[in-house]
Design a protein that fits this description.
CATH topology: Glycerol uptake facilitator protein
Number of strands: 0
Largest sheet: none
Radius of gyration: 19 Å
Order of helices and strands: HHHHHHHHHHHHHH
């Protein structure tokens, strides 16, 4: 296992290298990363069907979701929440701010493309209609809850989330064998999911699926929002109305993305790099 100082250097060098890759490679690997996180979300949803004890469901779902990050790490994907640690390379003077900002923007956009595409394909596969549609209905409730958070709540949960995600990537880079990398990601990612924090790329899939599911069930009840509320176990009408594209971006993705940046860049990347800079010398 690498020392903390060696890991900090590896993070700075590795993510700086990824930020300088050809734009086509970044786009393709960003789409792949968004889709990988979506696949982790799908595994989480199917793993927790029928589990009525929240703590157990959170634990099992968190462990299942970690598969998404494994796909990203082992295939070399560009995931926004970990890519923000390229800010360490910028802090170290080896990546211009403009290049860093452009890289983050491209990765975020194409993570969304990958996640949203998987959400549509997942719906068309009819898999979320299994178990009497309990999975698809659950996405509506979950998406409605996410767009109903206050800016402050979503922002803080985004910070906490990316402390765990970036530490998972940090620890995976420190491990020298595959088993060590897997263990690092399983428990750290499981901790963020099980605790209910907010991950912008995971939400790109979850809320897109929720919007698709809402449209699906709304069509079944003839567009009657009150009938939809009853169908979805009396989910409040105001929450169903809040589940729309504007709130998706403004009330969730915006604060969560900002929180993810703060958690990844400052609480993990820069603090880790600064703390071990003496040992690097």
């Amino acid at each position: 296992m690498l020392s903390p100082a060696e890991t900090a250097q590896a993070v700075s060098g590795g993510l700086g290298h990824k930020a300088k890759m050809p734009i086509l490679s970044v786009i393709i690997l960003s789409i792949m990363a968004g889709g990988s996180i979506a696949l982790g979300d799908i595994f989480w949803a199917h793993s927790t069907v029928g589990i009525t004890t929240p703590g157990i469901a959170n634990f099992i779902g968190g462990i299942a979701f970690s598969v998404g990050l494994m796909l990203v790490v082992f295939f070399g994907g560009h995931l926004f929440t970990s890519s923000v640690m390229s800010g360490v390379t910028t802090y170290n003077g080896k990546l211009p701010v403009s290049k860093m900002a452009f890289y983050w923007t491209v990765v975020w956009i194409f993570n969304f493309v990958g996640a949203a595409t998987l959400a549509y394909l997942y719906y068309k596969s009819a898999l979320p209609m299994k178990y009497d549609g309990s999975i698809l209905k659950h996405f509506v409730a979950m998406g409605a809850g996410k767009v109903s958070l206050s800016f402050e709540q979503a922002f803080i949960r985004g910070i906490f989330c990316n402390i765990f995600v970036c530490m998972a990537v940090w620890s995976a880079m420190a491990a020298k064998d595959t088993a060590g990398k897997i263990l690092a990601m399983v428990f750290l990612v499981g901790a963020f999911v099980g605790s209910g924090y907010e991950h912008c790329v995971a939400n790109m899939f979850i809320i897109t699926e929720a919007l698709i599911a809402k449209a699906h069930y709304l069509a079944q009840v003839g567009g009657d929002i009150h009938a939809l509320s009853e169908l979805l176990h009396h989910l409040p009408v105001e929450k169903l109305e809040a589940l729309n594209i504007e709130n998706f971006f403004v009330k969730n993705l915006l604060p969560v993305t900002l929180g993810n940046i703060v958690g990844g860049v400052f609480f993990v990347g820069i603090i880790g790099f600064m703390s071990h800079k003496v040992d690097m010398k």
